[in-house]
């Protein structure tokens, strides 16, 4: 039996010992005071647009405010496609199932040469593995959040920036633990981010191609730090080593000025201690979930950067847990960790432009009983950019407190607050230990805050998954009261920049149980310009269904299942071309790496190791995705 720790179980363990009022108690008070629709708290009718505020200067139509143009089209784009039926749950899915009105192709699975011809492809042969050097030139594993950046608004050519959240030792190395530094480097090199130039050929197939814009960003890529904590001693090691790498890149986002934001989530699991069980963590380490064995990766055995007991690298752990900004069109640009946005287990980020042109970012901390955050730039984002100042470097970080009467407060994490000044010595410390600062201020513990998206009328939506990724809970027989998760929405005062908000439950997944639209464990989230919400799931589904991609018409409440994945996977990372006629969606950890569960994207053979991959989804009639 493998002793390897399945790391993402940790999201369902709480390391929050603050005693703050948990959200379920707030919710009980809220329900007792507010009228709710039949069936409990279920779908609230609303409509979305493609993040109206993200009308950037740089010409990416994924962000552009279409105004009346979208409105005139929206009535033609209802959710009317033939759904994938519940009956697919009667079979073990070794291949994805998609609506009869749609089709999919496979793009850039793990092991694909980043630039064709530069390195051989790893095709899933269990008798061999890539070398560490080969992996640094290949698409990584653990496909998750991503964004398509078109060339000059093109629907046929652009850059796909894609996260590689994780790959277990058994999946990547073919063994439970590394036996050499080479093993560790291979594991490290399949993590991080791929920036891949892709194009649509004349036969309609998307492929990657050689481009100066393509690059891999791994655990050993040089990084820059910026913002209030950039020069903090807490980010410096006695060893004097430069800042390297990004890891456990989960959800993502993009900025109005054309950059990619990748989010570092379960970074704690890659650290361990050479002292073994004798290791005793500090208060700060405990709050971020560090332990002697981490998630069983064993990197600390051969790479001292990840040894919590090595005094020369005492602050290496503080260099992870940030949002990292990447220029997708300039491979010479060093990725930048934006410390003003706080250090915690970032799941994803949604950026919009608020009052007076200020950049606003909404973020979830994906662990049970952790918090929802907001960042607001100090000034107009365009003015800051003209001055050579990043809008993500100067601003205020807030954490949410949900009140029982349907209102909420954004609590600023600032050293100017006497409550925080009594615990911390500087704003840098507040940001590096943002979780502890949020505990002190009395933020509301939530049920695994994950992806956020911006809708019409300035509503912000957030998925709360509350489910263990590495188990298969039965959504119809939950172990906890909120086993299937929910979606919450709120509206801030002062056009996203205020310190108060009103909130309500948008949907409880449990309200869909037993229906043809059943789903559980909402995770990835994206609102299109036509009033539809796309939801990717990550956890047990009813009727034996695999994880799925669901589309909801928020005007009518109509919902349809567009796609189901394969055994033990996760459906995540939703992005589209500017014309909305091509969607890219990821299937992560198919079969949990077990060729006995699935061999996808290879044809079933019971032998080939399954590989994370991107699906290119189109309507057979060439129509708008979701219709």
TrEMBL record:
State the Pfam families in the record: PhoX (PF05787)
The protein's name in its UniProt record: Phosphatase
């Amino acid at each position: 039996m493998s002793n390897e720790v399945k790391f993402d179980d940790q999201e369902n363990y709480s390391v929050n010992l603050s005693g703050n009022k948990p959200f379920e108690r707030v919710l009980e008070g809220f329900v007792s005071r507010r009228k709710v629709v039949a069936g409990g708290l279920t779908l609230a009718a609303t409509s979305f647009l493609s993040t109206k505020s993200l009308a950037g200067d740089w010409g990416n139509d994924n962000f552009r405010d279409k105004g009346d143009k979208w409105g005139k089209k929206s009535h033609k784009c209802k959710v009317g496609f033939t759904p994938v039926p519940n009956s697919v749950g009667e079979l073990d899915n070794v291949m994805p199932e998609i609506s009869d009105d749609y089709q999919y192709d496979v793009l850039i699975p793990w092991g694909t040469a980043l630039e064709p011809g530069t390195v051989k492809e790893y095709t899933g042969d269990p008798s061999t593995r890539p070398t560490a050097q080969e992996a640094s030139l290949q698409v990584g594993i653990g496909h998750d959040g991503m964004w398509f950046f078109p060339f000059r608004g093109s629907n046929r050519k652009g850059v796909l920036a894609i996260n590689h959240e994780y790959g277990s030792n058994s999946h990547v190395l073919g063994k439970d633990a590394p036996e050499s530094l080479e093993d560790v480097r291979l594991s490290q090199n399949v993590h991080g981010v791929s920036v891949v130039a892709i194009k649509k050929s004349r036969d309609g197939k998307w492929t990657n191609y050689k481009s100066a814009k393509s690059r891999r960003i791994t655990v050993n890529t040089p990084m820059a730090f910026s913002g209030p904590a950039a020069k903090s001693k807490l980010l410096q090691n006695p060893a004097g080593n430069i800042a390297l790498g990004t890891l456990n890149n989960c959800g993502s986002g993009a900025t109005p000025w054309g950059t990619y934001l990748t989010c570092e989530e379960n970074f704690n699991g890659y650290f361990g201690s050479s002292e073994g069980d004798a290791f005793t963590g500090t208060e700060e380490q405990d709050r971020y979930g560090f332990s002697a064995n981490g998630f069983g990766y064993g990197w600390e055995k051969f790479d001292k950067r990840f040894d919590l007991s090595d005094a020369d690298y005492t602050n290496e752990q503080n260099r992870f847990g940030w949002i990292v900004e990447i220029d997708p069109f300039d491979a010479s640009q060093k990725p930048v960790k934006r410390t003003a946005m706080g250090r915690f287990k970032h799941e994803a980020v949604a950026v919009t432009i608020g009052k007076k042109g200020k950049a606003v970012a909404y973020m979830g901390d994906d662990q049970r009983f952790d918090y929802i955050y907001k960042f607001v730039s100090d000034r107009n984002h365009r003015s800051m950019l003209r001055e050579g100042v990043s809008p993500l470097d100067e601003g205020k970080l807030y954490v949410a407190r949900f009140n029982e009467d349907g209102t909420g407060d954004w609590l600023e994490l600032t050293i100017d607050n006497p409550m925080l000044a009594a615990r911390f010595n500087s704003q840098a410390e507040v940001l590096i230990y943002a979780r502890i600062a949020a505990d002190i201020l009395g933020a509301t513990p939530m049920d695994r805050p994950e992806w956020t998206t911006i809708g019409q009328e300035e509503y912000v939506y957030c998925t709360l998954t509350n489910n263990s990724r590495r188990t298969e809970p039965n959504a119809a027989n939950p172990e906890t009261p909120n086993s299937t998760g929910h979606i919450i929405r709120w509206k801030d005062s002062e056009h996203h920049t205020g310190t108060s908000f009103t909130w309500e439950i948008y949907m409880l997944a449990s309200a869909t149980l037993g229906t043809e639209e059943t789903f559980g464990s909402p995770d990835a989230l994206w609102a299109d310009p036509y009033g539809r919400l796309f939801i990717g799931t990550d956890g047990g589904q009813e009727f034996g269904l695999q994880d799925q991609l669901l589309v909801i018409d928020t005007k009518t409440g109509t919902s349809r299942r567009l796609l189901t994945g394969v055994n033990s996977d996760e459906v995540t990372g939703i992005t589209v071309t500017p014309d909305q006629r091509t969607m890219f969606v990821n299937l992560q950890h198919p079969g949990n790496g077990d060729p006995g569960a699935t061999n996808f994207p290879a044809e079933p053979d019971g032998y080939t190791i399954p590989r994370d991959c991107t699906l290119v989804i189109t309507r057979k009639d060439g129509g708008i995705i979701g219709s």
